[in-house]
Amino acid sequence: MYPCFTFCHILGMFPYNINALTFEISKPKYILSTVVTCVCCIFDLAILYSIIISKAINYEDIISNLEAINYFIFSGFILIMTHILTGPRMRLLQTILKISLKLSRDSFQKLSKLVHLKDILGNIFLFVNTWMYFYKKQSIQYKSNYLNVFAIIFGTYIALVALQMNFMYMNCVYILKACFKKINDRLSHMQRLMINDIKSSVPRSSYHIQRNQFLLIEIKTIKKQHLMVSNAVQMLNMVFSLQLLAVVTITFVETTFELYSYVVRWQGKVFISLDRRLLDCFLTTMSYYAIKLALLVWFCETGKNQAQEISTIVHDVINSTSDEQIKNELQLFCLQILHRKNIFSAKGLTIDATLLTGIVGSITIYMLILIQFLITMHSCE
């Protein structure tokens, strides 16, 4: 997670020191984070005032103004929640760090490569998208003034903060997914040992008794690990739920309004076209939101699948043994799994493939509604 932590530190939103694999709140960094948050809140309110009341910032049509208002409201909310949840997030990161130490070296290296690549490329993509917006859309569509330039610079900053929180959540999910996979691998290995014992023609001996005792200890260890990872999932959902809701809302509203602004035109009737001068700007913006949402859903969906697979493997292990003690311990493990719904959610909104399809369907519906409003507005003139 070091690329993500580094970007947070540069943005002034990482009030922690990492000492000997422990997270501690740094007083100077926390004060800096507080000052940055307060200043950003003032800037955010000033920009909203300039759009809504004074009209000093005007994007020339109602849809674009509503898009900007939505963006600054929810991005500001993410910024505030990032600061408020400093303590709970530190405890979550400490828990995730403790859990990740149980992963094998190879698993950890593979995990690190993907996390680092995602974090670095994601931030580069955001900078490219901002450059496209500033140098193309701004110069072609809107009147350039110092307030518009300031709004873009500040918007880029809060977008970077929101992106780091989004990536931090994904990284935590990916680590928890790796932990669930390790539990599945240990259970599968245990099942193979039991099957080999059944096929063996060697009579029951002290070796088998010792093997069963070892398996009982292994099951209890796996149960403790599963409980620890499940608690981390619950903690993760609590810490990031409000920020995730804001991210999903921004993605939905921005995608809908951007599609409408770029594609829909009125030339005596509704005309679907695309300004070729803004094609690259449109593609980078849509790609940014689509990839970010797809990655979020993919991490959560695959993590949930690994967690749910544990129950299936445990039942297979139960069917592979005849020892009553082992069966009883595995049945207790099944009860523990039933009481732990390891899904990644935000205040009841499950982050999985159904969310992605739901957002795509909703964008289509609201695009049709906006087009209908456009037709009605011009028919009344």
UniProtKB/TrEMBL annotation:
Coiled coil: none
Record's GO cellular component terms: axon; dendrite; neuronal cell body; plasma membrane
Membrane topology type: Multi-pass membrane protein
Principal location listed in the UniProt entry: membrane
InterPro entries on file: 7TM_chemorcpt
Key words of the record: Cell membrane, Membrane, Receptor, Transducer, Transmembrane, Transmembrane helix
UniProt-annotated location(s): Cell membrane
A GO BP entry: signal transduction
Residues spanning the membrane: 30-53, 65-85, 146-167, 235-257, 278-299, 355-375
A family per Pfam: 7tm_7
Alphabetized PANTHER family for the sequence: GUSTATORY RECEPTOR (PTHR21143:SF134), INVERTEBRATE GUSTATORY RECEPTOR (PTHR21143)
Function: Gustatory receptor which mediates acceptance or avoidance behavior, depending on its substrates.
Family: Belongs to the insect chemoreceptor superfamily. Gustatory receptor (GR) family.
The protein, known as: Gustatory receptor
Lineage: Eukaryota, Metazoa, Ecdysozoa, Arthropoda, Hexapoda
Name of encoding gene: LOC105423278
